[in-house]
Amino acid sequence: MITIVDYQMGNLRSVQKAIEHVGYEARISSDAHEIANAEKLILPGVGGFGDAMAELQRRDLVQPIRDFIATDRPFLGICLGLQLLFEKGYEGGSYDGLGVLPGEVVRFECPAPLKVPHMGWNTVQVQRQPPILESDVDGAYFYFVHSYYVVPEDPSVVALSTDYGGPFCAMVWRDNLFATQFHPEKSQANGLRLLERFALLETAVGHG
Fold this sequence. Notes:
There is one protein chain. With 208 residues, the protein is an alpha/beta fold. It has one domain (2-200): 3-Layer(aba) Sandwich (Rossmann fold), CATH 3.40.50. It is built from six helices and 14 strands. It has helices spanning 12-21, 32-36, 49-58, 62-69, 80-83, 188-200, and strands at residues 2-5, 26-29, 40-43, 75-78, 86-89, 95-96, 101-107, 118-123, 125-126, 141-146, 148-152, 158-163, 167-174, 177-180. The chain has an eight-stranded mixed sheet with strand order 2-1-3-4-14-13-12-9. A four-stranded mixed sheet has the order 6-5-7-11, with helices on one face. Strands 8-10 form a two-stranded antiparallel sheet. A hairpin with a 3-residue loop joins strand 12 (158-163) and strand 13 (167-174). One of its GO terms (biological process) is L-histidine biosynthetic process. InterPro entries: Class_I_gatase-like, GATASE, Imidazole-glycPsynth_HisH.
């Protein structure tokens, strides 16, 4: 069973349907006890960084998510769910994130004719091969929609990068933690394979 965190900031049903499509059970929950005791956890998200953190705090979900990540159980962040893992986000101000990974979330400053948000299909480049991706994923297309991107303080956590007016982090991987800037649930076959491999992970995945 995969638990999807409900904090009113994501296309939860799309993620749930994608997991069910590859043959696994998923439940949507905003219950702190269920989240703390989940087998595997997904933090999706669409929207503003500050609003998302405020909603997680209002629902008393910040500490259960941090506690879950500190265990050996698999965690997947998607889009805003990646960005929230970092220390600071600067969308409409300066906001503290979950602080799981050192670094910050900044807005694209792209040269013309590139537009913000970065929206649509783009290729990824493998920096480190994570276990939830197949070995032929270098150059594969995934679906993005975002105006901000993460800048990890520790470059060794970057698993995938993408270029949009310059390279940026498209996926992080550290031990049991995985998080993507792209949307696997919108990325057709490539995204479904990622979700399937995440569902197949053992409780302990080893060190990245």
